[in-house]
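[User]
If only I could read backbone structure tokens as easily as an amino acid sequence. I have put the entry right below:
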Amino acid sequence: MNRLISRERAANEHGFAKLKSWRVLTKVRMNARHATTLLRALLVLANIEVQR
């Protein structure tokens, strides 16, 4: 169980690190709810890219 949690956590940490490097996200000016949805979608895409 710990391995599974570690693997998932590592993938998420890589995804967030990737998102932080995208400077365009610092200029996002929108409703917090929409921004959250956008970030979640981007995180999924970043995780897919990391898994390749």
